[in-house]
Design goal:
It is a single chain. This protein is mostly helical and about 100 residues long. The protein has a domain of about 30 residues.
Length: about 100
């Protein structure tokens, strides 16, 4: 199993690139506090986690905006059909069960 872990670590390392950043004291304090809170092994790991969270939040906003745009542009007939369909389905359908 140790060999598998080493291969996984090497694969992860190969996908990353090294960069250098200059941070303000406030940003550095935030990063260090986040590292402590997340129990991360390094500032780099912490920054990577924070950036991934920001990416997820941005994608969520984009999806929400697309859904809002769809419903804002849908006709009353389309919305009525969707409402009728939703009322005709059971909650168990979404869990793979029928009531």
């Amino acid at each position: 199993m140790n060999g598998k872990i080493n291969r996984m670590t090497l694969a992860t390392t190969r996908r990353k690139t090294k960069h250098s950043f200059t941070l303000s004291p406030d940003s550095l304090a935030f990063l260090r506090e986040a590292r402590r809170r997340l129990k991360a092994r390094s500032d780099s790991e912490t920054l990577d986690w924070l950036l991934k969270e920001a990416i997820v939040a941005q994608k969520r906003k984009e999806v929400d905006a697309a859904v809002k745009a769809y419903y804002d542009s849908a006709s009353d007939q389309e919305l009525s059909e969707q409402r009728d369909w939703a009322q005709g389905t059971s909650a168990g359908m979404w869990a793979g069960q029928q009531e």
